[in-house]
Every structure is written in structure tokens, then in C-alpha cells.
Amino acid sequence: MALSRPIRIGLVALAVGGLIAGAAALTSVVVAQDSPSAGRAATSVPTDTATPRATPDSPNAPVPVDLAVQKQLAYALAHWKNYNVADYGVVTGNDCVNFTNQSLIARGWEMDAEWRTAGTGSSFSFSKPWVSSTALMRYLADSGRATALTDAQRDQVKLGDVVQFDWDKSGDRDHTGIVTRVEKTAAGVQIYYAGHTDDSDYLSVDYAITTKHPGGRAYYWSIP
Q1: Three-class SS state of 216
Q2: Are the beta carbons of 146 and 176 closer than 8 angstroms?
Q3: How far apart (Å, rounded) are the C-alpha atoms in residues 111 and 130?
Q4: DSSP string covering 75-111
Q5: 3-state SS class at 4
Q6: 3-state class (DSSP) for residue 144
Q7: What secondary structure letter does DSSP report for 210?
Q8: Is 115 within 8 Å of 181 (Cβ atoms)?
Q9: Around Cβ 217, how many Cβ atoms within 10 Å?
Q10: Alpha-carbon gap, residue 116 to 131, rounded angstroms
């Protein structure tokens, strides 16, 4: 049956209207599914327009470095092999304490009546703590310029501290050096030192008391 033109236009309008209504209903269903249900918080979705993180007014302060210790270690590493005969004397065959004391001067220590030296090369004067490990031990204990530590306290040892050895367990000190490296490993704290006579820059304390001098003991002086 043929339909008149007005009727055909009316039917097309109804069809289009139905499509639009159906799309609207479908949209409402999708929106309802994506919307948070009652009692459940909405999930935050990151976008490119998120507020940028605040920039600090100034960068973090650097890790503090003890410049006095740096000067001491720089001196020790510069002269463990090349003896500084221009500024100090040399004790032939037993220069370890002399060298350690020189490094303490580089660190900023000042001489006093008990701890001193003067002169250069093979012609110089000195007090006993300047050249004797045992005398230095007593001087450090009496002066209060350092704190005594045993080898069982090596976890408290720092760069620039003084290490001393008793090779024969007599109670005297037989060798002295400067701590130049401290490593904390799974096996424990490893300490290395620089010294004269047994010229070295990074000699292991453990090697010194087990291989070089089996049964020797190590002691330390912690310098504030």
C-alpha cells in the first residue's frame, strides 16, 4: 500500500526519534556503570594535567666533611713513601711515631712542652712521645687528646685515628700508624693504615697482626 508523502515524513521522524532515545538510554546505562556506587570511593585516574610536585627552595646540604682529617690524610698519603725531610727530622729505622705525629700537625694539632720537635733531616731535637710508640701511648692517655679503644671496639674507629701495635703482648707499643681506610663488610670492620719504617699507605690491620706479626695486638686512639 502506497503511503502519502506527509505520512512517510512522519514515520522517518519517529524512527530517528527512536534511535536518539535509544542512544540516550544506552549512554545513561554506561554512565551509571562507570559511576562509583554508593558507599565506594571513586578511583583517582592520573592525567597529564596533574599538579606538578613542588620544587624545594634550596637543595639538600652536602654531607659534611672534616677538613682537618682530610688535610691529615692528604699529608700521610703524600709522605708515606716520600719522607718530608724539608720540614722534619727522620729517625732512621724507627720513624713510625715521628711520621704519625707529623700527620697530627697537618690535622691542626699544636705542639706543647711534652709533645714537640724541632729541626730537619738527621739533625733534630724531639721529646720522647714524638719518637716512641710507648711514650706516645702514655702522652695521649695523660693529655686527654684522644680516647683509647681496643681492637674489639674497631667499629668506633674513624679515619685519621691513631693505630698502635703490641707485637709481643708485652704491654708496650711497638708500632704506630694513621688510619686511612675503614670498611664495614659482612665479615666485620676492616681497617687499613699508613705508616713509616714499614712504609705503607693502606696496610691491613688484620694482615699485620696475623701474617706479618702472628699473635700481635692492635689498639686505637680515637681523636675527636
Answers
A1: coil
A2: no
A3: 10
A4: HHHHHSSS--TTTSB--TT--HHHHHHHHHHHHT---
A5: coil
A6: coil
A7: I
A8: no
A9: 17
A10: 10
Coil, strand or helix at 120: strand
Using DSSP's 3-state secondary structure scheme, residue 15 falls into helix
Cα–Cα distance measured from residue 81 to residue 181, given in angstroms and rounded to the nearest whole number: 17
pLDDT in tens, 1-57: 444 444 444 434 444 444 444 444 434 433 334 444 444 444 444 454 555 555 555
Q: Whole-angstrom Cα distance, residue 191 to residue 183? A: 6
Query: Distance (Å, rounded) from C-alpha 97 to C-alpha 117?
Result: 12
Name the H helices within 108-143: 128-131, 133-143
Exposure string of 57-71, with b = 16+ CB inside 10 Å and e = fewer, is: eeeeeeeeeeeebeb
Query: What are the cell numbers at 179?
Result: 688510619
As given in the structure block, the three cell numbers for residue 44 are: 583517582
β-strands 217-222, 200-204: how paired?
unpaired
